[in-house]
Design a protein that fits this description.
The complex is a heterodimer of chains A (326) and B (211). With 326 residues, chain A is an alpha/beta fold. Helices cover 44% and strands 14% of the residues of chain A. Chain A has helices at 4-12, 79-82, 92-104, 120-128, 130-139, 141-166, 187-207, 225-231, 245-252, 264-267, 274-288, 309-324; strands at 27-29, 44-46, 52-54, 63-64, 111-116, 170-174, 212-219, 235-239, 257-262, 293-297. In chain A, strands 1-5-6-7-8-9-10 form a seven-stranded parallel β-sheet, sandwiched between helices. In chain A, α4 (120-128) crosses α5, α6 (141-166) runs parallel beside α7 (187-207) and α11 crosses α12. Chain B has nine helices and five strands, in the order ααααβαβαβαβαβα. In chain B, α5 (102-114) links the parallel β1 (89-94) and β2 (117-120). In chain B, α3 packs antiparallel against α4 (58-82) and α4 packs parallel to α5 (102-114). The longest helix of chain B is centred in the first third of the chain and has 25 residues, at 58-82. In chain B, 54% of the residues are buried. Classes of the chains: A alpha/beta (326), B alpha/beta (211). The A-B interface holds A 54, 56, 58-60, 63, 65-66, 130-131, 134-135, 137-139, 179-186, 189, 264-265, 268-270, 305 and B 14, 16-17, 54, 56-60, 62-63, 66, 97-103, 105, 124, 149-152, 178-179, 195-196.
Chain lengths: 326, 211
């Protein structure tokens, strides 16, 4: 039997996996590393960037607050004076738990993984609000390029530190690039603003020991896959059924792998049903196949919003492995 | 005529910094304010249609809506005199517990461009607040409810149920948002479901025409 790591590599290289990679099993994500402030459920908090986040009681996560009082960047032409890049001089004690966690991981079996969020595009709309960020791409492209480059420099500065501290094997990077049915912007606009900065930052991670780049965007983004490949993404996590993943695998398998196909909407809710989960897992595994595909909830971490859903999906994936890898 | 066509193209292509000047030139050339407004509304219909078909994306839609808004600013004093027609008022908001606003804002912009008077209640809006807004505003013909989370979908149902219980008549209720489907809209008794901002405007016009 292959180790988890070997099985992952066989899957994404089109070799001989002996089972499905089961969701996030190959990533041991070091969430203890210092990075960002988030509010607790029911509360609010101001991040290092000055962004106010609110987490309504009973909801799935925090939201940036973008009313006039709280929006950080109201005028993109003044981003250099307004946006304060947070310092990254974390003291040793802030790293201790992360280092301890990384040292405890069996690297023969799993990838020690850095978690990075929010990505460059998300940061622009966290700072400005979605409408302003999107319109600024048209109205003030030079300033947007400047802001995006500054955000990229920040990520590289963070990467330098964490690479030195925990010597990670993989990066799990969040940046949502679309809604359920569409990418937020055209592939041409995406290329104009985001491809080169991402090539720069993902290139830096890879040049400094990262073997695997896993990018999270739980959305439609099939039209951006060629750019993802160009950026150096190894696995797109969060691929929704709206993308026609089997077709993407046929077209791009070998250049990139796809992790998802188990949409949170119909599966991860209060009245979740093991039978429905099993049906979705069976459809995903049989239509997408054994190579370049990892069945997984589209959620952006190895958890579910409702207790039991993640584990039930894992169980169903194990069952499909037994059926399909005899 | 040619200037009106230029206004239309300016909106379609999102020329936010130029459109006011083009509208003024059209007026100076003798075009009627209503004809210019109609040209801009037609441009936004095209934008909505292209968005629904996936031919354009969110930035193009936003920038076109902004261009239209800047053009309308020039026309406003003239339309106030001549009396611009309205399709009625639309109360819009994201339901209680949900702070997502982009989808709701896109629909609001498109509705306004189409000729609805918008009453935007923002995000995290309770059923009572929606109902009160319908009572407080004149000529409300449509209520548009948005939810982006599976956990806030029940709030859509509760809001629709709240309207039924309130006894308010003469309005239509439309729902939308990523996890929402036609089936869910039918289940909770909404009058319509729209999958995106472009479709929402087309559906809204149909609903209001049938009132």
């Amino acid at each position: 039997m292959l180790t988890i790591r070997q099985n992952l590599l066989e899957t994404i290289k089109g070799g001989n996996p002996d089972r499905f990679v089961n969701q996030y099993e190959f990533l041991d994500i070091i969430l203890e590393a210092p990075l960002r402030t988030r509010p607790a459920p029911g509360g609010s908090a101001v991040s290092e960037w000055g962004i106010t986040y609110s987490w309504p009681e009973g909801q799935l996560g925090p939201f940036p607050v973008h009313d006039d009082e709280h929006k950080v960047l109201k005028d993109i032409t003044k981003w250099e004076e307004t946006v304060k890049i947070p310092p990254l001089d974390f003291p040793d004690e802030r790293w201790a738990a992360a280092i301890e966690h990384a040292e405890s991981v069996d690297r023969e079996d799993k990838f020690v993984t850095v978690f990075f969020a929010s990505g460059t595009f998300e940061m622009t709309h966290m700072l400005m609000g979605m409408e302003d960020a999107m319109m600024a791409l048209y109205e003030e492209p030079e300033h947007m390029h400047g802001l995006i480059n500054a955000l990229t420099d920040y990520e590289i500065a963070y990467a330098k530190q964490i690479i030195e501290r925990i010597k990670p094997d993989a990066l799990f990077h969040h940046d949502d690039w679309g809604s359920q049915n569409s990418s937020f912007m055209s592939p041409a606009m995406f290329e104009e603003f985001f491809v080169e900065p991402y090539k720069r930052v993902y290139g830096f991670w890879k040049d400094n020991g990262i073997e695997l780049i896993v990018h999270h965007s739980d959305s439609y983004a099939a039209n951006l896959v060629p750019h993802m490949i160009d950026m150096g993404i190894d696995i797109w996590q969060g691929v929704m059924t709206t993308n026609n993943t089997p077709e993407l695998i046929k077209k791009y398998g070998g250049q990139i792998s796809f992790m998802g196909e188990l949409d949170s909407g119909p599966l991860d809710h209060q009245d979740w049903d093991p039978k429905v989960i099993a049906e979705h897992v069976e459809r995903a595994c049989t239509t997408c196949g054994k190579h370049y595909f990892i069945p997984c909830l589209t959620q952006g971490l190895g958890i579910s919003s409702f207790p039991g859903v993640y584990d039930e999906a894992s169980k169903a994936i194990n069952e499909m492995s037994k059926k399909m890898f005899k | 005529m040619q200037k009106i066509e230029e206004v239309k193209v300016s909106v379609l292509t999102g020329k936010t910094k130029l459109v006011a000047g083009v509208v003024q030139e059209a007026l100076d050339g003798g075009a009627a304010p209503m004809d210019i407004l109609e040209a801009m509304t037609m441009a936004m219909d095209v934008v909505g249609d292209k968005f629904s078909k996936g031919e354009i994306f969110v930035p193009e839609m936003l920038i076109a809506a902004k261009a239209m808004s800047k053009g309308v600013d020039v026309l406003k004093p003239l339309l106030a005199v001549s009396g611009a027609p309205s399709l009625g008022a639309c109360v819009i908001g994201t339901v209680q517990g949900d702070l997502h606003d982009i989808g709701k804002n896109l629909v609001a912009m498109m509705m306004e461009s189409a000729g609805f008077t918008l009453v935007d209640l923002g995000v995290d809006v309770s059923a009572d607040k929606f109902i009160q807004a319908v009572k407080d505003n004149q000529d409300v013909k449509l209520v548009a409810l948005s939810a982006l989370l599976s956990t806030t979908m029940p709030a859509l149902g509760e809001t629709v149920a709240g309207f039924k219980e309130s006894g308010i008549s003469g309005i239509k209720i439309m729902v939308g948002g990523a996890p929402v489907t036609q089936e869910f809209a039918d289940q909770i008794g909404a009058d319509a479901y729209a999958p995106d901002a472009g479709a929402a405007v087309a559906k809204a016009k149909e609903l209001v025409a049938a009132l």
